[in-house]
Specification:
The complex is a heterotrimer.
Chain A: E1 9-14, H1 18-27, E2 36-41, H2 49-58, E3 62-67, H3 78-96, E4 103-107, H4 113-130
Chain B: E1 2-7, H1 11-16, E2 21-29, E3 32-37, H2 56-59, E4 63-70, E5 77-78, E6 86-92, H3 94-107, H4 114-121, E7 123-128, E8 154-158, E9 162-167, H5 170-178, E10 182-183, H6 186-202, H7 212-215, H8 226-229, H9 237-240, E11 248-255, E12 258-265, H10 286-305, H11 315-319, H12 326-335
Parallel strand pairs in B: 2-6, 6-7, 7-8
Antiparallel strand pairs in B: 1-9, 1-10, 2-3, 4-5, 4-12, 8-9, 11-12
Chain C: H1 4-16, E1 20-27, E2 36-40, H2 60-65, E3 81-86, H3 88-99, E4 108-112, H4 121-128, E5 136-140, E6 143-148, E7 151-156, H5 157-160, H6 163-166, E8 178-179, H7 193-199, H8 203-216, H9 222-226, H10 251-265, H11 274-278, H12 285-300
Parallel strand pairs in C: 1-3, 3-4, 4-8
Antiparallel strand pairs in C: 1-2, 5-6, 6-7
Helix pairs in contact in C: 8-10, 10-12
The chains are: A alpha/beta, B alpha+beta, C alpha/beta.
């Protein structure tokens, strides 16, 4: 077992594009890094930015939100709202001292299996560079 | 008991001499003072009025583990504090020490609270008499005073260059001897008495509590509460910073398979305090909650335990962001015309 | 300069109306350098109202604090209006509450009070000490004149003014039915220099700063309750089913709470500064909120609380929104 730090990434993938893209990466036997844990949501606009805060509290070292390309959202506008929200949440977390490399967003369409692999690689690389998340992680401090 | 003294510039040595005690003294983070464990004895100082957060957090911490458990195991691991650890609370004001005597009545009432009791029993309280009361102090109206000895093991008087220490209990005397204090002379005792008298004269605010506990229940439906509750924010400042407020919530927290049951400060001012699982809330608005808080402290608690649950430290007045002044409320309650007392 | 007699007269007129339930303003506090919020129900109480540099509180917070209980059967709900006296910064709260449809424009009567700045209690305490008597404060040119315990003291305006007032761009109310005094000239500008300064710190330094600050937090929720923009009937922070943030007061939960609140205020915070004023443990909350205010301005050219016809920031989008961080 390697002693090197392996980041724990939580990925929110939108059902119609990104999750399908991830599926394509899988069926194409693309090797992508195993650090991610996927949560399928119907749209990237469904993702509440507070999920990120909760994820970081519970032990995620990095988070990825992935949706359809702007203009191609299955629900027409969801990803536009998501784009605004995560822009701001990333800035807020950066202000508190959280490495911005922990908050990642991407547009991956259903046919972009190869891009999905690259997105994962980059997300994991950024989280590795940021180091283990232990700023406001729940640490049973005064248990 | 005994009379001792030490030179104030030897304060660090005196505190540092206690090797087997955990010493707690007011420490500042910016302008905020709280009681913290002393790491560096030279940081202890008498140059403060009173802490923002009262030393109740030493006996009744903000968050405390009651017991730990693990999913799959049937035994729990209680987290009752270790009573063999000796603690010294250094520089507690007489009002805050008197507050312990009030909350003790509740914590040892129907079910003795081992967490509070173990902490309280293992703590020696070295009080610091007030020479300059804080503007909204009214301790004298509630049986306290700048030199009150209630709840204390020893009382120190800062006389400028010398500190006079009067030990009140055996525990206090033991600590005074362990600190290596020398005996005090009449001069120190006289100076301390003079300081106390001077401080008494500086307390500007007061309330005559005669009749208030009996009158408050009859004001249950009176609209005078609204002039205060209309501006209440329902925050927790008055309760969390009150040395006699003692309510808590118990929550379970899980981390994968490990968990703990913890208690943390709760306040009757939050709307969730009386929120039932059904969704019904018997104190839905700030009027009910404000009325309840004052009535509890000045009527229901004295009815049960023969003492008003307030020590006159003035923190609720000083920190309330909307100037809800308990002395103002009590004065208006005296003026308000009572109606039929509402039965429970 | 606001003439308190005129203010009281206008308030009296409003309170005497049949269709007005209450009027929120300021009255003399029982001690110290701050006024007390006054919620008046009868025209005869109008003489209690004051307006001077002690009037720090934001009366707009009290419009949304009022609880609306279910009405018993057979009774009609009380649809009378609420009147409110507001300074310039407070009126931004009213504007933003109207933008978000917290209430309708005809449900409030706004009496605008042009303001030349309020005194920061902490600064005054440092300069003059504490007192258990109410303090009168008057502005005279570039000085504040205090009457403390019967004595007259003076201090320079620049050193005693609240930080939010130093950079105030809206001393005149932005929405009102009537002004109680003449408008004043704008004196402040805001370049967000404090946010720029803070951003010079590295991420570990920033975290070290915030860890110390959030460790102090006692979760009294005073910052949230006083905020005019925090009026959700059930706040995510106190929601138990499911529970987002634990009630225990360790650094993790305290940080989560403050991030949650700053997040929910992004694009909505109107910078009244009340959150920082009320905090009993001196957490610099505006440092957190102002970062979002500046970023919202830079990224989306949006400023909350100035235009009643505007849309709330996060319920609209621009197809050309910046996305340079997106892969």
């Amino acid at each position: 077992m390697s002693e090197e730090y392996e980041p724990n990434i939580l990925a929110f993938l939108c059902n119609w594009c990104s999750y399908a893209g991830a599926d394509l990466a899988g069926t194409s036997r693309t090797h992508y890094l195993p650090n991610i844990k996927i949560i399928r949501v119907m749209c990237s606009g469904r993702v509440n930015p507070l999920f990120l805060v909760n994820a970081l509290q519970q032990g995620a070292d990095g988070v990825l939100i992935s949706g359809c390309h702007p203009g191609d959202c299955h629900y027409l506008e969801g990803n536009f709202y998501a784009r605004r929200r995560f822009m701001l949440m990333r800035k807020l977390l950066e202000h508190v001292g959280v490495d911005p490399g922990r908050v990642n967003m991407s547009w991956v369409s259903a046919s972009e299996g190869a891009k999905f692999k690259e997105v994962i690689d980059e997300t994991v690389a950024k989280a590795k560079e940021a180091g283990p998340m232990d700023q406001f992680r729940r640490r049973q401090l005064n248990w | 008991m005994g009379d001792y003294k030490f030179a104030k510039d030897k304060l660090a040595e005196v505190v540092g001499a206690l090797k087997d005690y955990e010493v707690f003294a007011p420490a500042a983070v910016g302008d905020v003072l709280r009681f913290k464990e002393v790491e560096d004895a030279s940081s202890v100082s008498f140059d403060f009025k009173n802490t923002n957060v009262p030393p109740k957090e030493l006996m009744f911490p903000e968050t405390e583990t009651l017991f730990k458990f693990r999913v799959g195991k049937t035994d729990i691991e209680p987290a009752v504090p270790d009573e063999s650890k000796k603690r010294l609370v250094f520089g507690i004001r007489p009002c805050d020490a008197m507050a312990y005597t009030i909350v003790e009545k509740l914590y040892s009432w129907d079910y003795p609270d081992p967490y509070f009791e173990k902490r309280r029993e293992s703590s020696v309280l070295f009080g610091l008499a007030c020479s300059e009361p804080v503007p909204n102090c009214f301790c004298t109206s509630l049986g306290g005073g700048p030199g009150s000895e209630q709840g204390l093991d020893a009382l120190m008087f800062d006389l400028g260059e010398t500190v006079y220490v009067k030990t009140i209990t055996d525990a206090g005397d033991t600590v005074a001897k362990a600190m290596g204090l020398e005996a005090a002379a009449d001069a120190e005792k006289k100076a301390a008495a003079a300081q106390e008298k001077d401080a008494l004269g500086k307390i500007k605010r007061s309330i005559d509590t005669e009749g208030i506990p009996e009158k408050l229940p009859s004001l249950y439906d009176h609209p005078f509460w609204e002039q205060f509750s209309d501006r209440c924010l329902s925050c927790g400042i008055c309760t969390f910073l009150c040395p006699t407020c003692h309510c808590f919530d118990i929550q379970d927290e899980m981390e994968a398979f490990d968990g703990r049951r913890a208690r943390m400060w709760d306040t009757c001012m939050f709307p969730e305090y009386t929120l039932h699982t059904s969704g019904h809330n018997p104190r839905p608005t700030r009027k009910e909650r404000t009325r309840n808080r004052i009535s509890h402290k000045y009527s229901y608690f004295p009815e049960k335990f023969d003492v008003i649950a307030c020590v006159g430290c003035g923190r609720c007045i000083n920190y309330c962001p909307v100037n809800i002044d308990i002395l103002d409320i009590l004065e208006k309650s005296k003026q308000a015309e009572a109606k039929e007392a509402k039965t429970a | 300069m606001v003439d308190e007699t005129i203010l009281r007269e206008k308030a009296r007129e409003v309170l005497a109306r049949d269709d007005v339930r209450r009027l929120i303003g300021w009255k003399r506090g029982t001690y110290g350098y701050e006024s007390a919020p006054a919620v008046l129900k009868d025209a005869s109480q109008a003489d209690e109202l004051i307006f001077d540099p002690t009037c720090v509180q934001n009366p707009a917070s009290f419009i949304t604090l009022e609880e609306k209980l279910p009405v018993p059967r057979g009774q009609d709900p009380d649809t009378r209006k609420v009147a409110v006296l507001v300074k310039g910064c407070d009126s931004r709260a009213v504007v933003q509450q109207l933008v978000e449809k917290a209430y309708t424009r005809d449900g409030v009567i706004v009496l605008g009070v042009p303001c030349t700045g309020v005194v920061d209690r902490r600064k005054a305490q440092k300069m003059f000490g504490d007192t258990s008597e109410p303090v009168m404060i008057k502005e005279e040119g570039d000085k504040f004149v205090f009457i403390i315990d019967g004595e007259t003291r003076e201090g320079p305006r620049a050193e005693l003014l609240a930080d939010k007032c130093v950079r105030c761009r809206f001393p005149n109310p932005l929405v009102y039915d009537e002004l109680v005094a003449d408008e004043v000239a704008v004196w402040g500008a805001d370049e967000f220099a404090d946010v720029d300064e803070f951003e010079k710190m590295s991420p570990p330094e920033k975290w070290k700063f915030w860890e110390e600050q959030f460790s102090k937090c006692i979760r009294c929720y005073s910052c949230r309750n006083v905020c005019p923009m925090c009026y959700c009937l059930e706040c995510v922070v106190t929601k138990q089913k499911p529970q987002w943030t634990r009630r225990s007061t360790d650094v993790s939960e305290n940080t989560a709470y403050h991030i949650q609140r700053a997040w929910h205020l992004s694009g909505r915070c109107i910078e009244c500064g009340e959150c920082e004023r009320v905090c009993p443990v001196d957490i610099p909350i505006t440092t957190l909120n102002r970062k979002m205010t500046r970023d919202v301005k830079e990224l989306f050219s949006y400023e909350p609380g100035v235009d009643v016809e505007a849309e709330p920031l996060l319920s609209c989008y621009n197809p050309q929104d910046p996305e340079e961080y997106i892969m």
